[in-house]
Amino acid sequence: MTVKRDQFGSRIGFILAAAGSAVGIGNLVGFPVAAVKNGGAAFLVMYALFVFLLCFPVMMAELSVGRSSQKDPLGAYRSLSGDSPGWNLAGWLVLITPFMISVFYMVITVWLFAYLFEAVRGNLDQLAKPESFSLLINSNGIFIHFFVVVALVNLILVGGVKGGIERAAKILMPTLLVMLIAMVAFVLTLDNAFAGVKYYLVPDFSKIDARVVNSALSQAFFSLSLGMGILITYGSNMGRQDSISTSAKLVALTDTLVAFAAGLMILPAIFSFNPNTEIADLSESSVSLIFTFLPKIFLALQALIGYTGASFVAVVFFLLVFFAAITSLVSITEVPTASLMGERGYSRRKSLLVLTISMSLLSVACILSFGRVGFFTELFSYAGQSKSLFDVIIDVFYDTILPLNGFLMCLFVIYRWKKQNLNHELETGDERFRGSWTERYLNVSLGTFVPLILLLIFINTVALKFFGINLLS
Ligand code: PHE
Questions:
Q1: 420 CB-contact burial (10 Å; exposed 0-12 / middle 13-18 / buried 19+)
Q2: Per-residue pLDDT, 455
Q3: Tell me, what CATH number does 242's domain have?
Q4: How far apart are the C-alpha atoms of 339 and 73, rounded to whole Å?
């Protein structure tokens, strides 16, 4: 059955909404943590290379497939492949991925909400203590925060694409960027911040190893929302008069700028607050790092604007990051919602209900996997490490499947859908595309080295993550 697809009101509306979806926990939490863990500037260089050389073509491919088919990911693979069973499988993979990603994304969004709530209550000084993070994520209050977040996401989604996402993103994105830049400026005035700037910007290429390469690629995919059907869905809502190439460039640039700024805030702060930081110790960092250092940065503002002022800034910042996370969560949930509507003929409400219940059950299991319930806390053990449910979902769906989905998308577009259809779609709404450098690059890369590199990194990730085998050494 065909469903009438909502259209974005304007081109800038599309870009802001797509950038609003792209900017989220990946940029503000995932990127700085990955940069800290993986050698700072060495990671930054790999990340930038991957964004522009590999991810950008995949981004254009996803948007084109979405706009041409006017369908959800599953429907897109099905209709453009002439209902081939093999490609249907790829469509399913692209559908399960955002579903599973939304599970851990939800958990981190709930943590952000908990931090916002505590900052509003005037507990910024408590939040800055190292033990706060694990106390908070294992508190009973976390379940209340969880219900608030689930309710909010549903409220926005029932409103439809235009009403919900577009309005929120238009105000939110620019404000967040301005605030981030102001915070960077402040952090750079702190003592010893320069050591962090050096670690972040002066590459030590000897640090590039299998782990750095894998992390940079999955982080780039995740941050640009690739490999999870988001851009296929967004493409299907994009007007035919819009240039896919220009929109993709702007979204990729904004997203990378925000991630870069988040790194420039966090890395110098780490070196400033812990002047004895050993670079070797940083490789064991985890998400908790952000949740400890952000409050510390805000608390440091106390010297300038007092505790109330510092708390106010913290509240505004957490609010903006929380909204960025919510807009992302909304767009992740939009993918399986659109599929249930398109494939099963469910109403929007029914699709949402089915998804909310199943995602919530898994998210609650994740919330319980930080020590509360042994079964979820030590679910599996591989490559010599015990893994919680939360870890397993991240290892499988963020680290491993995203590049695989990207690889399949490249093969699909070039060898099944065919280059001329892709070019035709990219020329629609963009008369300057034909003969451009972008077109030439895409035509050469999408069928050759982009999928090849994605495949190699996928194999490398599986070997390293799950079997502890380092293929690059
Ligand atoms: N790209 C988003 C981020 O960096 C995450 C996201 C994934 C958003 C999927 C939408 C869809 O946080």
A1: exposed
A2: 98
A3: 1.10.4160.10
A4: 7
pLDDT at 3: 46
Residue 369 lies in a domain: yes
Residue 266 lies in a domain: yes
* DSSP reduced 3-state for 309: helix
CA dist 99 and 101 (Å) reads 6
469: in domain? no
pLDDT of the residue at 442: 95
Ligand 1, CB within 6 Å, residue ranges: 21-22, 24-27, 98, 101, 222-223, 225, 228, 230, 328, 331-332
Ligand 1 centroid to Cα of residue 23, in Å, is 6
Q: Provide the angle, in degrees to the nearest 10, between the axes of the packed helices 167-187 and 11-22.
A: 50
Structural Rg of the chain based on CA atoms: 21
Q: What are the residues facing 386 on neighbouring strands?
A: 381
Q: Is residue 383 part of a domain?
A: no
Q: Are 409 and 62 in contact (CB under 8 A)?
A: yes
**Which two structure tokens, joined as six digits, stand for 419?**
């280059």
User: How far, in Å, is the centroid of ligand 1 from the Cα of 327?
Assistant: 9
For 97-160, give the DSSP string: HHHHHHHHHHHHHHHHHHHHHHHHTT-HHHHTSTTHHHHHHTSTHHHHHHHHHHHHHHHHHHT-
Residue whose CA is at the smallest distance from ligand 1 atom 10: 328
| Pocket mutation for ligand 1, best pick of 328, 331, 405 (most atoms within 8 Å of C-beta) | 328
Ligand 1 pocket mutation pick from 219, 225, 393 by most atoms within 8 angstroms of CB = 225
**Given the structure tokens 């851009």, which residue do they identify?**
231
364 vs 52: CA distance, rounded Å = 37
Q: Are the C-beta atoms of 253 and 59 separated by less than 8 Å?
A: no
Total tally of structural domains belonging to the chain: 1
Per-residue confidence (pLDDT) for residue 324, from 0 to 100: 87
- Listed in sequence order, the residues at least 6 apart from 433 whose beta carbon sits closer than 8 Å to its beta carbon are 243, 245, 423, 426, 427, 439
Domain extent, residue 298, equals 11-373
pLDDT of residue 2: 42
Q: Directed axis angle between helix 244-273 and helix 193-201, to 10°?
A: 140
Whole-angstrom distance, CA of residue 145 vs CA of residue 52: 38
Predicted structure pTM score: 0.93
The first and second tokens of residue 360, run together, are: 């919530």
Nearest to 120 by CA among 317, 290, 299, 311: 311
Which of 96, 332, 399 has the most ligand 1 atoms within 8 A of CB, as the residue to mutate? 332
Give the residue ranges of the chain where pLDDT is below 70: 1-11, 13-14, 17, 159-169, 473
